[in-house]
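Deliverable D4.2, example record:
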Amino acid sequence: MQVPSYGGTATSSEGVYENVYVKQGGIWTFQKMKFWPTYYTPFESGWAKKDLPNNGPSEEYPPDLPPTDNAGVFPNLNIVPPFHYKNPVTGK
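Output generated by the structure prediction step:
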């Protein structure tokens, strides 16, 4: 993703989303949305030259529940995201 700030800087990030959807009253909605970031970096520099820390939960828009993990981001990425479903090929 790329997040610009009008008249300011831009940040790039990459990661894995795991979303769970439910159909309520004929409309599909998010039941769960999880983003596992791999890195954050200033757009001008690129990820190989400068890394930014994970800024944690938003104070302006806090999550419904507190974080349950501290995955870290590059260069301190310390987990592989666990998915809630089995791999369709390996069954694991």
